[in-house]
Amino acid sequence: MIFEADLQSWDKLGLSEATTERVRSLGFTAPTPVQALFKSLKFPNLRVQLITGGHSIQKDVEKFEKMKGAHVVVGTPGRLADVLSARNANNNLCRYSRNLEILILDEADRLLELHFEILLGNILAVLPKQRRTGLFSATQTKQLDDLKRAGLRNPVTVSVKEKHNLKTPVQLQNFVTQVEPEAKLSVLVAFLKQHRTEKIMVFLSTCATVQYFHTIIKHLFPDLSMLLALHGKLRSNRSKVFAKFSGTKSGVLLCTDVMARGVDIPKVDWVVQYDPPLSGSVFVHRCGRTARMGNEGSAVVFLMPNEMSYTKFLTLNQTIKLDPMQAPENVEDVTDVIRHLEADNESIYIEAMRAFVSYIQSYRKHECNLLFRVEELEFGRLAMGYALLKIPYMPELKGKKLSGFKPPIGIISHHLEAKRAAKNARGGSKRRYKKKRKNSDIISTDMNPSAKRRLKAQLKEERELDELIMDEKLIKKEKLHKITKEQFEERFLSMDK
Length: 497
Known about the structure:
Oligomer: single chain
Mean pLDDT: 80
CATH class of the largest domain: Alpha Beta
Distance between the termini: 63 Å
Radius of gyration: 28 Å
Shape: globular
């Protein structure tokens, strides 16, 4: 039995002072029930060894010898396969693997999705045939059936599920909201404001989108109790972010599918699937972050009009029924606010571009490519949904119409005048900048670092000014009908080539 007192502090688990301090520095203030399990078992002689990468195989072998063997070995498929295949005279860990009684493969379907089939085959080949093997998985896949036939003897399936024939808990309410491409971000912000006192997870398709949305929502909604971001490229602070969101009662976590499974975050009120997942099984795992352990919860997926057939697919493929939910009323359009942020801050401008490009590229890789077709995307309206100042050059957009994209004429003119005024206030001249630009190739040898940094900043500002002037001229030509709309779209698109 795990007592509540065991979950209050790491000190109760008998860890060394150095280990306890290190764990706390990562942001984990208290152990989870699983981490407190070994103390509650009261097996003082239970020896457990962790085998993962990051060091030599010999260190794992030496640790095994020092512990005089282990009752439980926990590891990753890659390192376990390496250790078990290292057949040398001192590798007792490999030899003693013949005495294995129980093998557990947790998240077995995920291991197969990550293409560990060969490694798992190598591991199973070394282990004794007379053993008990458990495959634990939240979803049933064809690969899992194949593994059962190839690696298990007399397999028996044990299903732990609700009485109802559903893939998601009965306490979970599943909704779908149809949103126009250009209004999607505004609807999300309105939704977050409407549910500001609740705990919400927002799933996005790419790391770049998570980063961009985190930046702009922080500006749009400064009084939000907590706004966090977590994705696959976030390494150093991932544990702290996870612990912080787990411990809060209200707040928003923007994340990719790195948080879709294998994690337990208590009392999540809403799961928002801003971007539909790449597969039906991931949809189930995302929804599973709420309505856990008998608690109630809600999930909503935002779909554009061309994606609404996805609801029928989920009903047939995953036995999931989605109830329609209207978008919040009186949604404020945040496009111009974000565009002003981009015009003022180049890093936000770059984040917006990267997010848009990564979204299109991710969309192309969707497993349900018969339902999610890049050819059916309205790129101009999508770009408005990302509040882009201009549409980046992409091979996917070549020859595509960009109807629905509204060039930010007023914003460009406003920032152009501001830059001109700032330049005039400093008494600078374009001719002087151009002269320095011609000599820029000898600057690195003739100038000290501080002067070189100042000049680089001046030249960068000049380039930005030139780009704004070009944008303004192009917009005026289109407005005066000196060029066609198609010519405008082609030239405006190619400026970032």
